[in-house]
Amino acid sequence: MNLSTKISLNGLSRFVFLNRLLACIATLWMAVFCMTGLALADLAQQEQEQVSPEQVSPEQPLGEQAEPGPQDIIYNMVLIPAGKFTMGCNQFGIQHGGPEHDVVLDAFFIDKYEVTNKLYEKVVPEHRLRRSPFSSCDDCPVSKVSWYEAADYCYLIGKTLPSEAQWEKAAGARNGCEFPWGPQFDVTKGQARGGLKLRDETASVGSYPPNKYGLYDMAGNMWEWVSDWFTINDRFPEIMYNPKGPRRGQMKVRRGGAWSDSIHAMTSGWRDRSHPFSRGFNDIGFRCALNIIHKKR
User: Fold this and answer.
1) Distance (Å, rounded) from C-alpha 118 to C-alpha 245?
2) In this structure, is residue 84 part of a structural domain?
3) Cα 170–173–174 angle (5° rounding)?
4) Which of the residues 40, 110, 191, 222 could staple to 289 if both were Cys, CB 3.0 to 4.6 A apart?
5) pTM here?
6) What are the Cα distances from residue 206, in Å, to 29, 175, 186, 194?
C-alpha cells in the first residue's frame, strides 16, 4: 500500500469517527431534553391536582363535595332515600288507586321541578310554536307533549321518566289518600295550584311550598306522565320490589292532578291514564328521574 492510499484511509476513518461522535452527542442531548420535558410536565400536572386553601371558597371547605352546577346531571334533582312505603288508597277503588299495597324502592333522584317550556325547548326548539295558551311562560310547566316525547326528552338528557311507584313515594304524603301536606286542601291557603278553572292557567314552577323532600308541584299545577302502562289490579304480592308496571298496554299513567282538574286527583295515591301518542293535552307535563346503579357485592 503506497503512502497516498494510507493518508486517504486515515482521513476517511477520522471522518467516520467524527460522524459517530456527533451522533452520540445528539442522542445524549435528546435524551436529556426529553427527560427534562417529562419532569416539567409531571410537575405541572401535580400543581394542577393540588388545591391550596386559597383556591377554596369559605363555603366549600377542603374535603367537602361541591354543590352540583347547571352542567351536572343531578342539578336541581333531589335524592329520594331507599325504603318501604304503602302505595295507593283503598277509598279510590281499583280504577284510581286501590288496593293499597307495600312497595320497597331503591334510592333514586327525581327532578325538583316539573320540566319547563324553557328547558324542554332547549332540546326541542319547535315546541315553542305550540305552547299551550294556558301554560305559556318560559318557567311554566311544559305541556302538549305526548308520553313518547316526554320519555325521549328525559332519555336525551341522560334521565328517564319516574316509575309510578317512584313518583308516589316522591310525593311525600303520609299515605296515598292524602295530599303531600296533609289530609285537606284549601284553595285559599296557597298549598298548591289546584281547584281552579282552565282559564286560570298554570303557575311558574316552584311558586308553591315544597313537600318534605323539597320537591315542588307534586300536587296540582300540571299532571305528570310516569313510565308505567296503566292496568287495573285487585290484588298485589305481599311486598313489591322496584315495580315497573306491566310490559305492555294501551294507556300510560299520569299522576298529581292539575290546576283545573278534580281536587281528588291531587292526592298522592290517585292515578289516571291517557293515550301515550296524544300531544294535545293542555294539562299534562312531566318531570324526569335518575336511577342509581347499585353494585352487587
Assistant:
1) 31
2) yes
3) 130
4) 110
5) 0.77
6) 66, 23, 18, 14
What is the CATH number for 102?
Answer: 3.90.1580.10
Using DSSP, state whether 35 is helix, strand or coil: helix
What is the maximum alpha-carbon separation in the chain? 123
Q: Tens of pLDDT along 145-203?
A: 999 999 999 999 999 999 999 999 999 999 999 999 999 999 999 999 999 999 999 99
- CA atoms of 178 and 176, how far apart (whole Å): 6
Which amino acid does the sequence have at 147?
W
Which one, of 159, 173, 162, lies nearest residue 105 by Cα?
A: 162
Query: Which is nearest to 112 in space by CA: 58, 75, 83?
Result: 75
At residue 289, the pLDDT reads: 98
d(CA 271, CA 47): 56
The span from the CA of 216 to the CA of 203, in Å, is 12
Distance CA 217, CA 280 (A): 21
| Cβ burial 22-32 (10 Å sphere, 16+ → b, else e) | eeeeeeeeeee
Q: Is residue 49 part of a domain?
A: no
| Inside any domain, residue 124 | yes
User: Which residues form the domain of 202?
Assistant: 76-291
Q: How far is CA 270 from CA 54, 99, 179, in A?
A: 53, 11, 10
Is residue 166 one of the residues assigned to a domain? yes
Domain count, the chain: 1
Cβ neighbours around 92 below 10 Å, total? 20
Distance CA 9, CA 75 (A): 80
Tell me how far apart the alpha carbons of residues 70 and 260 are, in angstroms, rounded to a whole number: 32
